[in-house]
């Protein structure tokens, strides 16, 4: 009787524990499952006779053998976007993770700006009123969020580039931590500041409840075509929703020192600066000193320099047309050290929106 109870409880507990670990990122799921199974095991043994118990013991042993020979749950190939946990209590070796991300950028510096974009967009969905969105659940890996207009191109680029790193560290590293760490690593590798970062984000598993509505990221142009007060209002609406003020809006806009627009993704075309793989304050200097005119082409409204090599979006130009924004553009154009300091604070804040129980983590 005792042996039967023990074996049936262990077998069923093992089965449910395996299932829990296959679909849950948290290590506390197993004790809860085992506790629930103890009463189930007792109910089975109360209603069985000797022969039934002997048959049950035999079949239980067979199941136990099958479970023992099965691969561990974390080796099960889960559908893309559903695997990955919140990291074990010890977490990953984040310096090693950072080195792996840095290796991607060293091999191809053009990937760096896209990794910053991935981190930015995974965090920029936060709403301070509804308390949802943000980087905490790693939801940008879900196809539902990747389909949002502002995330065009990420599904076939940055998300794919990071997958090998996620597989390497398994459940000790959440997607949410990986994507946000990737952003600060990319900024440092491209010549920017070393930004504080914290670990402990736990991946969401259900996109139907975790993915926020489309439209929470800033647009390139709203209202009439070209830069106008509607664009300034739009920027404040988007960023104030997350808890940012004018100074932080301008500082975060400085990320446009990196990368370029692609017609295949956003419809816009060209780099903001002549150094798209170097993080610096040139974006602000160019805003103030270049003669920006409307580009004559078949694409959406954008601005170009006289040499037709650089571009600005309407929501870039509004930063020098709105007096409250321009005062910070002027400061950052003259003082890169000040820009780096303010950007670091704002970017750290951005990446921690909507998170809880994070732990300051040395990564560099």
Helix-strand makeup class: mainly alpha
| Overall mean pLDDT | 83
Any idea what the radius of gyration is?
26 Å
Sheet with the most strands? 3 strands, antiparallel
Determine the N-to-C terminus distance.
58 Å
Order of strands, main sheet, comes to 4-5-6
Beta fraction of the residues? Answer: under 5%
Overall geometry comes to: globular
Q: What's the order of the H and E elements?
A: HHHHHHHHEHHHEEHEEEHHHE
Could you give the count of β-strands?
A: 7
Binned, the helix content reads 40-55%
Please provide a written account of the structure:
Helix 4 crosses helix 8 (175-189). The N and C termini lie far apart (58 Å). The chain has 15 helices and 7 strands. The longest helix is centred in the N-terminal third of the chain and has 22 residues, at 2-23. The chain has helices spanning 2-23, 29-46, 50-69, 94-107, 111-123, 143-146, 158-169, 175-189, 207-210, 229-242, 246-253, 282-289, 314-321, 323-334, 336-352, and strands at 198-199, 260-261, 270-271, 293-294, 303-304, 311-312, 359-360. Helices cover 52% and strands 4% of the residues.
């Amino acid at each position: 009787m005792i042996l039967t109870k023990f074996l049936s409880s262990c077998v069923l507990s093992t089965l449910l524990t395996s299932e829990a670990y296959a679909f849950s990122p948290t290590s506390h799921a197993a004790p809860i499952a085992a506790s629930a199974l103890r009463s189930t095991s007792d109910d089975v043994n109360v209603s069985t006779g000797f022969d039934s118990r002997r048959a049950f013991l035999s079949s239980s042993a067979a199941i136990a053998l099958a479970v023992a020979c099965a691969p561990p749950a974390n080796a099960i190939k889960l559908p893309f976007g559903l695997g990955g946990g919140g990291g074990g209590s010890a977490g990953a070796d984040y310096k090693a993770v950072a080195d792996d991300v840095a290796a991607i950028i060293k091999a191809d510096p053009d990937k760096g700006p896209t990794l910053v974009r991935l981190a930015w967009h995974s965090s920029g969905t936060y709403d301070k009123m509804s308390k949802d969105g943000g980087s905490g659940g790693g939801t940008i890996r879900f196809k539902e969020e990747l389909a949002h207009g502002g995330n065009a191109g990420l599904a076939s680029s940055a998300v794919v580039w990071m997958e090998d790193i996620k597989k390497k560290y398994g459940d000790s590293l959440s997607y949410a931590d990986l994507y946000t760490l990737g952003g600060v690593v990319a900024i440092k590798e491209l010549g920017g500041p070393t930004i504080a970062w914290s670990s402990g984000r736990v991946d969401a598993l259900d996109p139907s409840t975790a993915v926020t509505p489309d439209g929470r990221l800033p647009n390139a142009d709203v209202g009439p075509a070209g830069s106008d007060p509607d664009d300034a209002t739009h920027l404040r609406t988007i960023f104030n929703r997350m808890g940012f003020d004018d100074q932080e809006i301008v500082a975060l806009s400085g990320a446009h020192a990196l990368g370029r627009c692609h017609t295949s993704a956003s419809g816009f075309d060209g780099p903001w600066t002549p150094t798209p793989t170097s993080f610096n304050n040139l974006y602000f200097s160019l805003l103030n000193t270049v003669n920006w005119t409307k580009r004559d082409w078949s694409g959406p409204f954008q601005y170009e320099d006289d040499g037709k090599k650089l571009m600005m979006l309407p929501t870039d130009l509004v930063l020098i047309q709105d007096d409250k924004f321009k005062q910070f553009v002027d400061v950052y154009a003259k003082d890169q050290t000040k820009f780096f300091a303010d950007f670091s604070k704002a970017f750290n804040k951005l990446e921690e929106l909507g998170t809880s129980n994070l732990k300051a983590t040395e990564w560099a």
